[in-house]
Amino acid sequence: MPNHIEKRLRSFKLNTSQEEAILRCLEAKNCRHSNNIKLIWGPPGTGKTKTTSVLLLNLFKMRCRTLTCAPTNIAVLEVASRVVKLVSESLRLGGYGLGDIVLFGNKERMKIDDREDLFDVFLDYRVDELYDCFQALTGWRANVQRMISLLTDPKEVYRQSFIENDKRRPSFKKFVEKRFSKLRTDLRSQFSTLCLHLPTASLSFQVAEKMNATNGLLRAMKVSDVVRVSGKEDTRKQDCVEMLGSICESIELPDFIGKFGLQRLCLENAYLMFCTASSSAKLHMSCPIQLLVIDEAAQLKECESAIPLQLPGLRHAVLIGDEKQLPAMIQSKIASEADLGRSLFERLVLLGHKKQLLNMQYRMHPSISIFPNREFYGMKILDAPSVRVRSYEKQFLPGKMYGPYSFINVPYGREQFGQGFSSKNILEVSLVDEILSKLYSVSRKSGRSISVGVISPYKAQVFAIQEKIGKKYDTSEKFTVSVRSVDGFQGGEEDIIIVSTVRSNGKGAIGFLSNQQRTNVALTRARYLNTYLTYANFVKLFLCCS
């Protein structure tokens, strides 16, 4: 691997397993005599998203046409956001280069209006912005020609703009001032849009530099410079005219391009594309894809993986996930029993395909990580030095009961059925509310930022807790509470996690948590404190089952 790539990887302070995983993928990309599928195994807190984003940054720098898919819009937006941030930090000329990155999908389902950080790479937004620049009468090229005419012969432009003896005709100076000011503003905006949104295949770095320099010249120019026809200012005008002419000649694109044409232009010339697996079918008529990256691959059904895998030209694939966490959700019990929810990632693992393990976790206090590490990962995961330092052990509430890992026995709770025959436990709801009140009081008095996640395997319990706490913490900037099901918390993390298990029955039934993948997710979301509200007999039964 070239030295500059290894040097770039070192700048991100990756651990050995992360660096090794990225290097193996980059080596596979350069292999021309065979097709490759690489698996990156990312247990909770091991920096899977960071590894993915650094891999994609390097593929971007190598000009490898790469499609990144994920099962959900949320997962797509997360990885796209990380990559855009990394790429933006590495660009030399403002946003020039972001035109080589495209995010596409359903605007409403993606809730893209809430993600300002992704506006610049979202396809629909990009097409709308470029469409205004490629209008025949008001586009960038028409405005360049108008500016050249104004700088070259302002009197002739003034004469042609009005009928002789027109009483409404302004003075020559006022006319030039207004026309120059508008053209300068329009060109500055249009040049910025072209640099930001056009792919580099359509706009070279040299042309982008000229646009930037021209904007600087126009900004420094005064109306008196435009009106005057001799002296030093005339040289400045001449330089500006020559640059504008050069820009026009350098961009070989039509004066007018429709929205469909702009969409094709963006997709066919992008190096990094982001979408859900189902949306990737849109690329079948586009230029060939060299490499496919599937994030959260263990959550993507095998049949859904087939959509991007059939794209023309595809030679290599990288699947990133963890089959020990939740698979894709299957509503039908029959389909689930037939393993229709199984992912391609899991199938390849079962077939003995080698996977590159990310073996260092940066999220959980060691007291929290030890049990899932032993039960689900065979003690293969190391605790990072940052979570082993004494300062990482935080005591949010007084008493041994609130150490890093605690079980609170709820012996008198009663399991009830809520909506849709889902279970709930009202006593646990009250206990959650009480613990949240105490934590909020600590946060308010100390000025300490605390994020809390409340997890329950049952929808009825989630709704009951949400109803109980209402909106009482919504206005607090330093205290945040998120209440979700186990399935809704995959990929999430908080300072404190409270797990309401609900189960309190004499049958010995442990319900949803009999699924080890679901249990793994519930156990691995907290950074500093994991608190379980449960019935002691249930804990004994669960540990026996484990």
UniProtKB/TrEMBL annotation:
PANTHER family: DNA2/NAM7 HELICASE FAMILY (PTHR10887), P-LOOP CONTAINING NUCLEOSIDE TRIPHOSPHATE HYDROLASES SUPERFAMILY PROTEIN (PTHR10887:SF515). Signal peptide: none annotated. Residues 340-528 form the DNA2/NAM7 helicase-like C-terminal domain. GO terms for cellular component: chromosome. Keywords: ATP-binding, Helicase, Hydrolase, Nucleotide-binding. One of its GO terms (molecular function) is hydrolase activity. It comes from Brassica oleracea var. oleracea. The lineage of its organism: Eukaryota, Viridiplantae, Streptophyta, Embryophyta, Tracheophyta. This is Helicase ATP-binding domain-containing protein. Residues 13-333 form the DNA2/NAM7 helicase helicase domain. InterPro entries: DNA2/NAM7-like, DNA2/NAM7-like_C, DNA2/NAM7_AAA_11, P-loop_NTPase, SF1_C_Upf1.
